[in-house]
């Protein structure tokens, strides 16, 4: 099992969609929200996701295919 | 007596033992080093600092490396603080200073943070140092790893400019060129953390690495005669450096190193082609920093999803500073302005800083007598290519090797 710390960023089209619920339902992944800031038209969620590495990749692909921007929780690391 | 007490989450305050980790397990907030301030208050003094080496290690008491740890140094820091009268005169500033950090061993500010990070990592048993980088950081990490005799892995995007790869490769690190964009390099390194026993300078040992930034401000204030300026202009990439400059000022006041407790305005500079912090600052919600896709010549500060963006805006607002941004043309114009007036050749990131300084000065931000400092964080030879595409030789003439030709072509 592997663990990833992700920051999900939602725009106005996605903010009402239950994508974290879908992530847990469609994939063998355990999700755990750590912090969030969501308003009516945008927001972000810091999410811990646990699962097999391939399943994690598929889960991230799914989120991105739904229009959610997925970043490492700690932001850009490239210096 | 140990001066370091542990790590503390900036968001929720959760505390951790000193270790190579950068994110709070509770809330995923960033972790900061906690010092024994009571002990340091008894120890730190101007005299003790002034008796230290002519490098950033004169502030060792305020850095996260214990006294008995041998440091990995190439003589970084204590770079010149130049009074910029000619540039100041063009901008209507009579007390303008430039902190020229391009004079560091690998010609950028990054030597400060990397010297601290690798000193800490070596002392804590790490044998391999790594980083994800677009240039300046990889340069410093490769050089300091060589100096320390440690294994080094540098992760770069496969399309990184050849001249940057050369200046990294000369130190003989393992260069991993990732077929992907910056985001993908970023993600890969994040995932590698869990399976490698490496010290990633800008990731798992980030709390220690970041502390090296403070020395830039410590030095500036010491070089100003232990006086705080009115405003400091700082380039913004992840925002990590900006946060540490605020911390440095707090420490200078708390430890009695400055008599004044008037906090300078801290102002951030971004390129419009990658301005997530500026965008948020100008909006109604400065704490909501939304990622952007970078598209700027100022690549060394082109971070689309800055980890410390919200803290930058908080600090700018708290101190009376602003966050401003400049166009690509303004960046190049500022590089040329600085070179023409002060003889300092800075990279594009320095062009961003000087560009914002010029923009704010021309907009009337200052009356003229304020003490303003701009941080010039990297050398122009790192990004000389950007000048090749513009008219870099406006005053050049070609002549025959005769006096006649010279007199005809050159107006003296």
Task: Please explain how this structure is put together.
The complex is a heterodimer of chains A (79) and B (412). Chain A has one domain (2-72): ACT domain (Alpha-Beta Plaits), CATH 3.30.70. Chain A has 2 helices and 4 strands. Chain A has helices at residues 19-26, 53-65, and strands spanning 2-10, 30-38, 43-51, 69-72. In chain A, strand 2 (30-38) and strand 3 (43-51) form a beta hairpin. Chain B folds into 2 domains: 4-72 and 110-209, Rossmann fold, CATH 3.40.50.1100; 81-107 and 213-387, Rossmann fold. The mean pLDDT of chain B is 94. With 412 residues, chain B is α/β, with parallel strands linked by helices. The interface between A and B is medium-sized, with 23 and 40 residues.
Structural class of chain A: alpha+beta
Give the helices and strands of chain A as they follow along the chain: EHEEHE
Largest interface: A-B, 23 and 40 residues
Portion in strands of chain A: 35-45%
Assign the CATH architecture of chain A. 2-Layer Sandwich
Tally of strands of chain B: 13
Please trace the helix and strand order of chain B, writing H or E for each element. Answer: EEEHHEHEHEHEHEHEHHEHEHHEHHEHH
Helix content of chain B: 25-40%
Under CATH, the topology of chain A can be stated as Alpha-Beta Plaits
The gyration radius over C-alpha positions of chain A equals 12 Å
Q: Report the CATH topology name of the largest domain in chain B.
A: Rossmann fold
Low-confidence stretches of chain A: none
Would you identify the CATH H-level superfamily of chain A?
Answer: ACT domain
Please state how the strands of the largest beta sheet of chain A are arranged side by side. Answer: 2-3-1-4
Largest sheet of chain A: 4 strands, antiparallel
For the termini of chain B, the CA-CA separation is 68 Å
Number of domains of chain A: 1
How are the strands of the largest sheet of chain B arranged? 4-5-13-10-11-12
């Amino acid at each position: 099992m592997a663990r990833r710390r992700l920051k999900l960023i939602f725009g106005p089209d996605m903010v009402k969609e239950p994508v974290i619920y879908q992530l847990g339902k469609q994939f063998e992944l355990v999700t755990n929200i750590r912090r969030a800031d969501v308003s009516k038209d945008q927001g972000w969620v810091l999410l811990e996701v646990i699962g097999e590495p391939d399943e994690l990749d598929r889960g991230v692909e799914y989120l991105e295919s739904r229009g959610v921007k997925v970043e490492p929780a700690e932001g850009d690391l490239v210096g | 007596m140990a001066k370091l007490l542990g790590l503390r989450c900036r968001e929720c305050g959760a505390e951790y033992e000193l270790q190579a980790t950068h994110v709070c397990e509770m809330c995923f907030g960033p972790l900061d080093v906690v010092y024994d301030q009571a002990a340091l208050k008894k120890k730190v003094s101007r005299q003790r600092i002034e008796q230290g080496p002519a490098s950033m290690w004169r502030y060792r008491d305020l850095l996260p490396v214990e006294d008995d740890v041998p440091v990995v140094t190439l003589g970084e820091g204590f770079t010149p603080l130049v009074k910029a009268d000619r540039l100041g005169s063009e901008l209507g500033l009579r007390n303008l200073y430039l902190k020229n950090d391009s004079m560091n061993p690998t010609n950028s500010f990054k030597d400060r943070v990397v010297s601290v990070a690798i000193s800490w990592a070596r002392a804590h048993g790490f044998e391999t140092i790594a980083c994800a980088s677009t240039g300046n950081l990889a340069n410093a990490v490769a050089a300091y790893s060589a100096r320390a005799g440690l294994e080094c892995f540098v992760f770069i995007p496969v399309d990184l400019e050849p001249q940057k790869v050369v200046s990294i490769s000369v130190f003989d690190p393992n260069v991993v060129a990732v077929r992907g964009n910056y985001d993908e390099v970023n993600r890969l390194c994040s995932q590698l953390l869990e399976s490698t026993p490496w010290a990633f300078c800008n990731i798992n040992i980030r709390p220690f690495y970041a502390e090296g930034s403070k020395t830039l401000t410590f030095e500036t204030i010491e070089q100003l005669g232990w006086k705080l300026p009115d405003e400091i202009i700082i380039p913004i990439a992840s925002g990590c450096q900006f946060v540490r400059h605020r911390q440095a000022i707090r420490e200078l006041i708390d430890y009695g190193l400055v008599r004044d407790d008037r906090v300078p305005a801290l102002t951030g500079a971004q390129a419009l082609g990658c301005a997530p912090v500026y965008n948020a600052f100008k909006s109604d919600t400065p704490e909501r920093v939304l990622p952007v896709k970078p598209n700027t010549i100022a690549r060394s500060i082109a971070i689309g999803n800055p980890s410390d963006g919200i803290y930058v805006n908080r600090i700018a607002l708290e101190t009376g500073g602003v966050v401003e941004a400049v166009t690509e043309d303004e960046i190049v114009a500022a590089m040329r302005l600085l070179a023409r007036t002060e003889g300092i050749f800075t990279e594009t990131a320095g062009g961003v800083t000087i560009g914002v300084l010029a923009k704010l000065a021309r907009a009337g931000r200052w009356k003229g007598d304020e003490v303003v400092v701009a941080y010039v964080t990297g050398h122009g030879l790192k990004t000389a290519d950007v000048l090749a595409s513009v008219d870099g030789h406006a005053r050049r003439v070609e002549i025959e090797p005769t006096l006649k030709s010279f007199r005809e072509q050159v107006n003296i």
